[in-house]
Amino acid sequence: MIGDSEPLVLGIETSCDETGVGIVRGRTLLADAIASSVEQHARFGGVVPEVASRAHLEAMGPTVERALADAGVTFTDVDAFAVTAGPGLPGALMVGVAAAKAYALSLGKPLYGVNHLAAHVCVDQLEHGPLPKPCVALLVSGGHSSILLVPDVASDVRSLGSTVDDAAGEAFDKVARVLDLGFPGGPVIDRMAREGDPAAIAFPRGKYNDGTYDFSFSGLKTAVARWVEARQRAGEPVPVADVAASFQEAVVDVLVHKALKVCKDNGARDLLIGGGVAANSRLRALAAERCEKAGVRLRVPRPKLCTDNGAMVAALGSELVSSGLAPSELALPADSSLPIETVML
């Protein structure tokens, strides 16, 4: 551990379309500055990697400066830097990794290259304290739908299940496009669904009882598209709120069902939900309801900490420092396909 007190760690996140810079001391969040390029991607209906990389380049310096000002610290106060080394968009990752290397090298500070998914797990400690050992983590976002067993977030994260096609967040975006609701799809479908009937349309639940912990949302996305197309061909109005609510219910039903199955099969009494889709109001409500019935303790960070942010990277960096793990080499690569089992590079 660095020094005699809890480490002050600055974390940088650039895996997709948000430039995030967070600063934590131990498990206390001091700053969480974000610059999003989502509006630049909206007209394309999805994230454009080259646009994201350029946006990170432009936002990096100002976002770091804003985080330092918010935390009331300077570069010389920082004990260590942490950065998302993967998984994510290659070009976007390279911007963050290069910036973190420059800061660490110029200031003579240690650098920790961390796993984006493990960081989504670790960020909950900033809000709810140390993670139980072990706990089950359900991570759901635009690029990932995974179930993890986490004996130790700093060194032992195990993948038990993942998506075999579309991730949950990706399905939200594609269905929003079918319904002409814009991008990103998650927030707008969540809002529309509150006005609809989740039982109005019996959309399929892929791999619901297949005996695995894996997910599949491609068939559901296609079923929604075909249902909407059939209505349009018949000249009938599309009940957008009902479609949104029924689709959303199918997704969250599968997610919670599989997560609780993992808890039951592994004797785990604690479930953590993270990632951008964890901000979905129906997922949070259904998980709370079913976890209470199953006697499982539920942990979900506040919505702002569920989406990509620098705080989660700083949180994992702080955990690694406090655990006495050696920092990464300055030759640290950006690995777009970094496996979840590799917590740090």
From TrEMBL:
Pfam families: TsaD. One of its GO terms (molecular function) is tRNA N(6)-L-threonylcarbamoyladenine synthase activity. Its EC number is 2.3.1.234. InterPro entries: ATPase_NBD (IPR043129), Gcp-like_dom (IPR000905), KAE1/TsaD (IPR017861), Peptidase_M22_CS (IPR017860), TsaD (IPR022450). SUPFAM superfamilies: Actin-like ATPase domain. It catalyses: L-threonylcarbamoyladenylate + adenosine(37) in tRNA = N(6)-L-threonylcarbamoyladenosine(37) in tRNA + AMP + H(+). PROSITE patterns: GLYCOPROTEASE. Substrate binds at residues 139-143, 173, 186, 190, 280. Its main location: cytoplasm. Fe cation binds at residues 116, 120, 308. Binds 1 Fe(2+) ion per subunit. The keyword Acyltransferase applies. Residues 29-314 form the Gcp-like domain. NCBIfam families: gcp_kae1, T6A_TsaD_YgjD. Belongs to the KAE1 / TsaD family. Required for the formation of a threonylcarbamoyl group on adenosine at position 37 (t(6)A37) in tRNAs that read codons beginning with adenine. Is involved in the transfer of the threonylcarbamoyl moiety of threonylcarbamoyl-AMP (TC-AMP) to the N6 group of A37, together with TsaE and TsaB. TsaD likely plays a direct catalytic role in this reaction. This is tRNA N6-adenosine threonylcarbamoyltransferase. It comes from Actinomadura algeriensis. The lineage of its organism: Bacteria, Bacillati, Actinomycetota, Actinomycetes, Streptosporangiales. The gene is tsaD.
